[in-house]
Specification:
By secondary structure, the protein is mostly helical. Helix content is about 25%, strand content about 0%. The protein has 2 helices and no strands. The radius of gyration is 18 Å and the shape is extended.
Length: about 90
C-alpha cells in the first residue's frame, strides 16, 4: 500500500472572489484552447494570487491541463482517446 502525505495547511482570508461564465462553442469532439480567455479573466479581475476553479456543465466534457510545448502532444492525446473510447463503441449516452 502506498502512503500519501498531506503538506501543512495554509489558510488566508480572501480579499475578493471574481466569477465569470465562459461559453465555448464547438463543432464536435476535439481539444479547445482556453488559456487566453483565462488569462484575460485574471487580468480583468486584477488577480495577483489565487486559484481558478473551472466547472464544466457538459456530461461528457473533460478538462486537460498541459504545457503545449509540443503540438504533437495534442495529436497523441486525441489518438489515444479515440483508441480508448471509440465513437462507435455502442455507448448508451450519445
Amino acid at each position: 500500500m502506498k502512503l500519501s502525505k498531506l503538506s501543512a495547511i495554509r489558510s488566508t482570508k480572501a480579499d475578493s472572489i471574481a466569477t465569470a461564465c465562459l461559453s465555448v462553442e464547438t463543432s464536435g469532439e476535439g481539444l479547445f484552447e482556453i488559456t487566453a480567455e483565462v488569462r484575460r479573466f485574471l487580468s480583468q479581475a486584477g488577480a495577483r494570487a489565487g486559484a481558478v476553479l473551472i466547472y464544466l456543465r457538459h456530461t461528457s466534457a473533460s478538462l486537460v491541463i498541459q504545457e503545449n510545448a509540443d503540438p504533437d502532444v495534442r495529436t497523441d492525446l486525441i489518438t489515444a482517446l479515440r483508441r480508448l473510447a471509440p465513437a462507435d463503441a455502442g455507448w448508451v449516452h450519445d
